[in-house]
């Protein structure tokens, strides 16, 4: 086996590996890398139909990557839906993803019968991409109990749409949000939170005062 064969096998391996990814962004990126390698390999051995196939696949991957990256912070693509804390669909979502939730939030426990709780689903079209659960703490603090993203969308930060729309908290009288303590692989520093102990804190702007004419 010469070095050119190794390049071909490497490209094929990357292509297969990409199909094993649950994260859509990573799948497309790895698939693109595999296609580019195979374009070079098949061009070197002059297998032009395979060159053409991989060029087409590369263009498709680039289009999807461009679309996903362009809309990752788009409020028209991702919406926040508030649901009841005892909502059956919320309970189903938590149950289905329980093992994965425990992996990133080992201390998570949700009691829907407790008072002063809020639940939000982050969705794109009719697909749930994230769950944010919180409860009211002392002195106007919203304590986040769970900030979970489904595996498919884990390269994104859909929870940001809950925090970006600070009115979801300010209208309830909160002026500060605290992340779950002990969360594995937190991303809050990218959303304007500051580290404080084993959590992250976001200070919310004051709720606008509406005056009468």
Automatic annotation (TrEMBL):
Top-level division of the source organism's lineage: Bacteria
Q: Where are the transmembrane segments?
A: 51-69
Instruction: Tell me which UniProt keywords the record has, alphabetically.
Output: Membrane, Transmembrane, Transmembrane helix
* Name this protein carries in UniProt: YgjV family protein
- Organism of this sequence: Micromonospora profundi
């Amino acid at each position: 086996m010469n070095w050119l064969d190794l390049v071909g096998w490497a490209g094929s391996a990357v292509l297969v590996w990409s199909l094993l990814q649950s994260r859509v962004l990573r799948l497309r990126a790895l698939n693109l890398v595999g296609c580019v390698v195979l374009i070079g390999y098949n061009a070197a051995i002059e297998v032009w139909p395979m060159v053409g196939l991989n060029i087409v696949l590369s263009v498709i991957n680039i289009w999807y990557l461009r679309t996903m990256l362009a809309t990752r912070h788009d409020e028209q693509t991702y919406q926040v839906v508030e649901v009841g804390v005892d909502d059956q669909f919320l309970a189903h979502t938590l149950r289905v993803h329980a093992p994965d939730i425990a992996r990133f939030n080992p201390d998570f426990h949700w009691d829907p019968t407790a008072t002063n709780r809020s639940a939000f689903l982050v969705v794109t079209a009719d697909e749930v991409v994230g769950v944010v659960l919180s409860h009211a703490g002392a002195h106007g603090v919203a304590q986040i109990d769970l900030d979970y993203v489904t595996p498919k969308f884990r390269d994104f930060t859909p929870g940001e749409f809950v925090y970006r729309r600070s009115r979801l908290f300010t209208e309830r009288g909160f002026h500060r949000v605290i992340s779950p303590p002990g969360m594995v692989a937190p991303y809050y520093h990218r959303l304007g939170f500051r580290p404080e102990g084993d959590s992250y804190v976001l200070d919310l702007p004051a709720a606008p005062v509406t005056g009468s004419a």
